[in-house]
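Per your request, structure below.
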């Protein structure tokens, strides 16, 4: 943009110098109307160039705005990608931890299950008083060689023993189920507690992302606001400078050239 302004300025200066030479020649030859025409044309060129310079000032600041907007867009894309990768990595690690804990629980459960089975298998049923009395009576009948009575007692004893053994086996099965269910409950509680910690960690991570995002937006807003303020000040200074130069040309009939430059940016 600066090179374009300088190139345009050179062309304008050359054109003004040519018109000024014509004016001086007309003045020497006494062609004063032609000299005035040259002067008027020079002033018209200066006025048009003044407006053009002000327009260029706006264009320069508009380009700055566009550049900043693009940088902010790229920064926002980088921010989004960074946090997406960070959250994906968190979820990957969380899933890995849960899998590890479940594998450890499965291994422990099989060991504990075998221990419980061995403990229960070593237990023996404790028969009721009725069964013990019937056994004593059976032994007495055998000792006394009262085999028919012994046979009757045996026939009555076996169903009672079988029923009590059946109840004992059911108790063992219930005990096994309760103990293994207690283990499973402990493992479920451990997984639920782990998932809760992962959830809290995820929420904390999302809170950090929200804070960083709000800070980024605020920084972008501050940059845009500062640029807008500088833009308004730059254009105002340029307009004021051009108007001052134009007024000086109007006030001084002999002034034929305006020194057009963009006002320095703040």
């Amino acid at each position: 943009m600066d090179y374009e302004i300088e190139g345009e300025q050179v062309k304008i200066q050359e054109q003004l110098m040519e018109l000024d030479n014509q004016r001086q020649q007309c003045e020497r030859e006494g062609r004063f109307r032609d000299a005035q025409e040259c002067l008027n044309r020079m002033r018209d060129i200066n006025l048009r160039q003044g407006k053009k310079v002000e327009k260029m000032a706006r264009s320069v600041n508009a380009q700055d705005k566009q550049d900043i907007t693009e940088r902010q867009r790229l920064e926002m894309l980088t921010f989004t990608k960074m946090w997406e990768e960070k959250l994906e990595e968190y979820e990957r690690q969380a899933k890995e931890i849960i899998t590890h804990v479940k594998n450890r629980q499965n291994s422990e459960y099989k060991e504990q299950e075998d221990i419980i089975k061995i403990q229960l298998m070593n237990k023996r049923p404790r028969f009721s008083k009725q069964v013990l009395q019937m056994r004593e009576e059976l032994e007495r009948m055998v000792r006394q060689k009262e085999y028919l009575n012994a046979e009757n007692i045996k026939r009555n004893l076996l169903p009672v023993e079988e029923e009590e053994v059946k109840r004992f086996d059911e108790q063992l099965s219930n005990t096994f189920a309760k103990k293994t269910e207690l283990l499973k409950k402990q493992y479920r509680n451990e997984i639920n507690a782990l998932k809760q910690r992962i959830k809290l960690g995820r929420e904390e991570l999302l809170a950090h992302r929200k804070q960083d995002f709000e800070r980024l937006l605020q920084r972008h807003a501050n940059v845009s606001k500062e640029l807008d303020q500088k833009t308004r000040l730059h254009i105002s200074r340029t307009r004021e400078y051009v108007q001052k130069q134009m007024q000086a040309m109007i006030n001084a009939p002999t002034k034929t050239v305006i020194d057009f430059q963009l006002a320095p940016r703040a």
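The helical segments are 2-29, 32-121, 129-143, 147-251.

Regards,
D.
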